[in-house]
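Write out a sequence, fold above all:
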Amino acid sequence: MIVLQTSIPDMTPKRGKVRDIYDFGNSLLLVSSDRISAFDWILPTGIPDKGKVLNQMAAFWFGKLGVPNHLITADIEKMPFPQGTDLTMFSGRSMLGKKCQVIPIECVVRGYLSGSGWKEYQKSGSVCGIKLPDGLRESGPLPEPIFTPSTKAETGHDENITFHQMVEIAGQEIAEELRRKSLDIFRRGSEWALKKGIIIADTKFEFGFSEGQLILIDEVLTPDSSRFWPADSYQPGQGQPSFDKQFVRDWLTQSGWDKNSPPPELPDEIVKKTQEKYLEAFQILTDHPLNQS
């Protein structure tokens, strides 16, 4: 399966793991592709509709949360495309955003004990240096959500840092404001999602400064930046089914791939199941189907 590569005449995008970014001078065009990454590799097989889900879900949350953010418009008819651009490849998967000074920190919030947090807790009784009570279970709720920042890596793994290290990078005032905003957004987003039947176990946010204002950027509360669990099948004490690329991770782990050489193509069944999960999460959270036009 060939993954769509976007193109604008006489412009060269910066291509990340998932997004293509075009510089329009005083704004940026962020295009969510159908590329999917796992274990720090971009896979050769894309997931149909994935980019549209990420883009439209982020736009939904930007509108719902009411937090100052980078979104100028998600309507391609209002974007300054050069003449001759094939707009069909951008429809439904693009947003025009404000340029800003990006704060090089991933603002991670965890409400449940899972993934790397669970592994660390088993060894040390803490997560990212935050001491937790004894007796917590895998996938169990934390006494209260915790803020566990990490460095923002262009390639490879982000590195967990302490809040003190974050202060050294961003300064005391900004670090405290980022922690406050992140916990507040997580709380409000989680309350909405739970009403819809989805548990947001953890997530990450990014922020920047635009004209002196601290704003939320990139994406927010999507299946790529968050761990979504179906509430109706939630059972603490074990791993949970999820609305993200877990099918992909599980298949790659079982495939015999060494995670050091280029990854294999995904089977059609895994692609289909992953696509269905992304679409299901979008439908549940937003109450409307994906806009395919």
The domain at 101-233 is CATH 3.30.470.20 (D-amino Acid Aminotransferase; Chain A, domain 1). The longest helix spans residues 172-196.
